[in-house]
């Protein structure tokens, strides 16, 4: 039985990856950090599986992570834990680098020093392309030009992963994932903010939805599809880097129009543009070239409209339930 250790298990991707690995008969241990509220809503349903459990640890405390690795002895480590919000990374730049860059280097160094057989996955991001001057769609040879502390922290971790692979021969893989969403997406990312906002408006609990720059464009996929891709890259004979994207790009405004129309509403009546949600630097356009992982047989099953529809339906149901009880 393969053993997988997942950091960021309480997040969107951690929960779907756990489900996928459990369905493939892995033993899964998730590392979660201590918070003052319960943070296990996305994984509570998994505890009934005898092959799933969690332990406390924090990426800014490398000894805590090393202790868990020592006890659990994983075959594969998926490093999904991160301060993952781009705008907030401008408010907490140091914490962002500590978690997103020093966290992974701690794990890589542990693997190098103590058990070089462990396979390592690094959750890299399309934010590393930032304001790239390369032509879209962006592939592995496109210029990296991050626009935020978050993008910079992920770019450093990307190179460290490559360096440990090339320098020490570790099985260390970067998945450069473009934006991926789902009903489990954090409430402050733009797609979920829109679908949750519409659900509250329909229920009469919200009057206006306040957003920032709605002109930027994103290549949105589904988290479930992207977790299949990262597992696939970890099963290859040789470690390598891959891009995961749909190749289709749409503006935030298009997403707004689509979701409000689905709900039978005119977005212009409800959306207020608020400077508070703009970023000091923006990433204006993202579109990925995922041809390399497609050669391994991966394809996305969801398109952007199906994702948004699923999220909207889920939020409408959720809001109905909380205001009924
Ligand atoms: P998410 O929902 O924000 O989850 C992040 C996870 O990291 C949560 O479990 C969080 O714990 C944990 N975490 C944060 N700081 C930590 C720390 N210091 N120590 C240990 N754990 C910590 O993010 P996601 O959307 O699932 O993304 C997963 C990974 O992929 C992240 O590394 C993200 O940067 C990267 N990524 C995401 C996308 C995307 O579009 N979703 C695209 C490219 C790359 P709490 O639950 O306690 O907050
Ligand atoms: O913003 C604009 C915002 O926060 C998308 C993370 O998972 O994907 C994610 O980062 C766009 C930006 O995602 C609001 O300015 C407008 O142009 O949903 P987002 P992101 O910044 O692309 C990458 C790949 C990651 O790696 C990250 O971890 O939407 N936008 N108005 C807004 N964004 C937010 N959050 N809130 C607004 O009110």
TrEMBL record:
A GO molecular function term, named singly, is: GDP-mannose 4,6-dehydratase activity
Question: Coiled-coil stretches, from where to where?
Answer: none
A GO biological process of this protein is: 'de novo' GDP-L-fucose biosynthetic process
Tree of life domain:
Bacteria
Keywords from the named record: Lyase, NADP
Q: Does the keyword NADP apply?
A: yes
What this protein catalyses is: GDP-alpha-D-mannose = GDP-4-dehydro-alpha-D-rhamnose + H2O
SUPFAM superfamilies linked: NAD(P)-binding Rossmann-fold domains
Describe the location of the NAD(P)-binding domain by residue ranges.
5-311
Q: What class of enzyme is it?
A: lyase
List residues binding NADP(+): 120
Keyword Lyase listed: yes
Q: Read off the Pfam families from this record.
A: GDP_Man_Dehyd
Cofactor(s) required for function per UniProt? NADP(+)
Explain the purpose of this protein: Catalyzes the conversion of GDP-D-mannose to GDP-4-dehydro-6-deoxy-D-mannose.
Q: Which family does it belong to?
A: Belongs to the NAD(P)-dependent epimerase/dehydratase family. GDP-mannose 4,6-dehydratase subfamily.
Q: Cross-referenced HAMAP family, in alphabetical order?
A: GDP_Man_dehydratase
Which protein are we looking at? GDP-mannose 4,6-dehydratase
- Natural source organism: Candidatus Jorgensenbacteria bacterium RIFCSPHIGHO2_02_FULL_45_20
Phylogenetic classification of the source organism: Bacteria, Candidatus Joergenseniibacteriota
Gene designation per UniProt: gmd
């Amino acid at each position: 039985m393969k053993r997988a250790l997942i950091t960021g298990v309480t997040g969107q991707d951690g929960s779907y990856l756990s489900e996928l690995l459990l369905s493939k008969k892995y033993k899964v241990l998730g590392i979660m950090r201590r918070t003052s509220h319960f943070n296990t809503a996305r994984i509570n349903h998994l505890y009934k599986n005898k092959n799933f459990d969690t332990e406390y640890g924090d990426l800014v405390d490398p000894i805590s992570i090393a202790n868990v690795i020592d006890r659990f002895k994983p075959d594969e480590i998926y490093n999904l834990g991160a301060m993952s919000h781009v705008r907030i990374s401008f408010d907490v730049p140091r914490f962002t680098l500590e978690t997103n860059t020093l966290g992974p280097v701690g794990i890589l160094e542990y693997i190098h020093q103590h058990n070089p057989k462990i396979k390592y996955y690094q959750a890299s991001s399309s934010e590393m392309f930032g304001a790239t001057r390369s032509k879209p769609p962006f592939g592995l040879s496109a210029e990296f030009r991050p626009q935020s502390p978050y993008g910079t922290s992920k770019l450093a971790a990307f190179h460290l992963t490559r360096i440990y692979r090339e320098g020490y021969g570790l099985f260390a893989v970067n998945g450069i994932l473009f934006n991926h969403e789902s009903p489990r997406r954090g409430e402050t990312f733009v797609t979920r903010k829109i679908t949750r906002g519409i659900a509250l408006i329909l229920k009469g609990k919200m009057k206006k939805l306040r957003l920032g720059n709605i002109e930027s464009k994103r290549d949105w996929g589904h988290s479930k599809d992207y977790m299949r891709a990262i597992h696939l890259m970890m099963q290859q004979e040789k470690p390598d880097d891959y891009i995961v994207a749909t190749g289709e790009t749409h503006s935030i405004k298009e997403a707004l129009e689509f979701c409000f129309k689905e709900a039978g509403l005119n977005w212009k009546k409800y959306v207020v543009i608020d400077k508070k949600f703009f970023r000091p630097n923006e990433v204006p356009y993202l579109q990925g070239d995922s041809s390399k992982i497609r050669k391994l047989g991966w394809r996305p099953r969801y398109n952007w409209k199906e994702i948004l529809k699923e999220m909207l339906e889920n939020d409408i149901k959720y809001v109905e339930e909380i205001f009924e009880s």
